[in-house]
Design brief:
The protein is 33% helix and 26% strand. It is of the alpha+beta class. The radius of gyration is 23 Å and the shape is elongated.
């Protein structure tokens, strides 16, 4: 089987690389993914997917096969913006390849992984390896700002409940069996605005926020002192409402990024935040962020995303280990991921068996001169193909 996969992968490698370059060269900021979505839709149809559609949120969903076991590969199409173009060696949207690395915004996060999944499923079909499985490949939207929201809408509207989900985020081809969750929390405090020439008649809310900031630092230290898997908290933004730069502000708000360990529920974090603001004039809430997808669909993103974990002896994990060994002749590394992915929906909300496994180094994500190793992308596509025919996919 390895030889068959290697043979077809060799024949289509130039096409894989070319398509990866094209979508890296195409901007697709969060909620602005239309151009890449249409390119992905066209490519899936060209490759002979059995069914391809774009849902109301703008996700592209392709299907191959009609077996009883259902496997979903998910990758998001959106990227963060570029604010440091002068520091890049080449145009951030050049898609240039140098020394075996494909450079550009979104190369590793996560257009090369997306391409690997599109072609991995295609190879499984061409080799007849997917007779017992239905393979879905989703190119999802707006993950960078709204983790899991687009996939949640996809699963809700389609009723799709896969037996296994592979989130194709970059893991350097290690298998992530879970990751922490994330909550965004707004802490606000009111003051009394006045002219800055006479500040004593007002109440400066930024000064009132000092106590909350100190208590946040204390909470961060307590969380950091824990052993084993643990959450964390970071103050990531602070702003105020003020009539002008010569006025004392009317109110002040800070944003807390609270990373969540397994078992940390909304109730637990709510109690923690109640304690944080106790004895102060501050109030808090989980961030509910309204936005609109590229298709014009309005939604509100609730910023509480739970942590999750899959057992290492789960058939999806052992099946991925086997696929990796088949393609590479080596054993993969298993680990717990630190960053958040669309797994917060598939595993955290829908409790679907999920792993994170993809090409490229996540340290390159959002960075200057972002790149993905071409060899890593091609290897991932072969492993994805092998996973589609593993024993774990056989109908029970």
């Amino acid at each position: 089987m390895k030889k068959r996969i290697d043979d077809i992968a060799g024949k289509i490698s130039d096409d894989i690389i070319s398509f990866a370059q094209k979508i890296v060269q195409t901007k697709s900021l969060t909620c602005q993914e239309k151009d890449v979505a249409l390119m992905v839709e066209a490519k899936m149809k060209q490759l002979g997917y059995d069914e391809v559609c774009i849902d109301g949120t703008g996700n592209v969903l392709g299907r191959i096969g009609n077996g009883k076991k259902v496997l979903l590969f998910d990758s998001h199409m959106d990227t963060v913006t570029v604010i440091d173009e002068a520091q890049w060696d080449d145009d951030p949207y050049s898609g240039v390849i140098k020394d075996g690395k494909l450079y550009g915004r979104g190369a590793v996060d996560m257009k090369c992984p997306l391409v690997a999944s599109i072609y991995g499923a295609y190879m499984a079909k061409e080799l007849g390896l997917a007779e017992d499985v239905t393979i879905y490949v989703s190119a999802s939207t707006m993950e960078e700002d709204f983790d899991g929201e687009a996939v949640k809408q996809l699963l809700e509207t389609t009723g799709l409940r896969p037996d296994g989900v592979v989130i194709c985020e970059p893991t350097s081809l290690k298998i992530a069996t879970g990751h922490r969750g994330r909550a965004l929390i707004e802490v606000a405090i009111e003051g009394k605005s006045c002219h800055a020439s006479n500040p004593n008649i007002g109440i400066n809310p930024v000064y009132l926020m000092e106590e909350i900031i100190a208590k946040t630092q204390q909470l961060a230290a307590r969380l950091d002192a824990k052993t084993g898997e643990k959450g964390s908290v970071a103050l990531t933004n602070i702003y105020c409402s003020t009539p002008s730069n010569n006025s004392v502000p009317q109110d002040a708000t800070i944003i807390l990024d609270r990373r969540l360990a397994l078992g940390e529920s909304e109730e637990i974090i709510s109690a923690e935040m109640d304690e944080l603001v106790a004895g102060t004039k501050a109030s808090w809430k989980f961030s509910d962020i309204p936005s609109r997808s590229w298709t014009g669909k309005d939604f509100v993103f609730h910023s509480f995303l739970t942590a999750w974990k899959i057992e290492e002896n789960h058939p999806l994990v052992t099946g991925t280990v086997s696929a990796y060994e088949t393609v590479t002749g080596e054993k993969p590394e298993l680990f717990q991921m630190g960053a958040s992915t669309n797994g917060v929906t598939t595993a955290g909300i829908f409790h679907l068996p999920t792993i994170v496994f993809g090409p490229g180094d996540i340290a390159q994500a959002h960075s200057v001169n972002e790149y993905c190793s071409v060899d890593s992308m091609l290897t991932a596509s072969r492993i994805y193909a092998a996973l589609c025919m593993g024993d774990w996919t056989k109908a029970e």
